[in-house]
């Protein structure tokens, strides 16, 4: 049975002002090509299918795109196994699971052999069996969503905690208990091939510059030293940096695209592993995925830097860029600088500028009359941020802001 392991798709995500839909859909389409070229039987997506920033209409279009891209894969007998991550909307995913269960009420009970050719989404810890299409032998798939209170702390006692640290302690214990419960289930065969799919932070992993929109204090870190012995392959999601832990068959595949500046140096990819009747039959193989360039550009002297940037970045139209700009009033025209940078880097996702000749805040106490009020500060900020927008659009936004400011007075 050939399995393609991927994770952290974050479909419908945004980076600053940039909608990442097209980038992420292209990545999904590349995954589908790998499924076809590698004769994959099971596509295992280890959590964070969707972005918490996705709108309901965007989620609908995302699922429609899935239908188009993976129609041939599913029609040919391929199976998609998925589980929820920390960025997946719990209500939406539970609704999706309920609808899928309503369509096939006898499918998906723990330990049952499920038919191929469809998608399965686990919103709670569970395990299922799939039979190899050629050999007919069963492979067990243990699916462990990201540990949240709603998914893992079902009792009233478990939901009582006085601090984030205490909550995380409960969740770490609950995650380990859920895994032990699955492996002790009467239908779980300790001798049969088994694959783990989990969206979780395993102790000892290399996070990289930062976690994706979650702090280390908020994250739930579980122990996983025993996982390589318990499973023929452990398909992990949540950490975007591709890596293996302790053994080459315990892996984070990483995200399918660079999601923020912290991932600018990551080589994205997916992992192929083959499971036979006696377990893993070969070492996992990493297949690369092209990723969008993302970087920071600092402009210190616009008159010198802009001509140089035009030469150095002639093909930056698709790049994601964080702009840091310094200019001097009377020497540089900010509006012209922003317009030129917009031509070179049309997909800038964030920008910040500072007037290098600006005086710092006064050190004298009680200085009166010279500081800007709240309303004036807001209007000035909007005026600068909208400097390149159409005049009619800019005036309309400023009029709305004025109305809101008057209501606050």
Automatic annotation (TrEMBL):
SUPFAM superfamilies according to UniProt? Metallo-dependent phosphatases
**Which Gene3D superfamilies does UniProt cross-reference here?**
3.60.21.10
InterPro entries, per database record: Calcineurin-like_PHP, DNA_Repair-Maintenance_Comp, Metallo-depent_PP-like, Mre11_N, SbcD
Gene Ontology process terms (BP):
DNA recombination; DNA replication
Q: Record keywords: Hydrolase included?
A: yes
Where in the numbering of this chain does the Calcineurin-like phosphoesterase domain appear? 1-202
Q: What is this protein called?
A: Nuclease SbcCD subunit D
Annotated organism of origin: Frigoriglobus tundricola
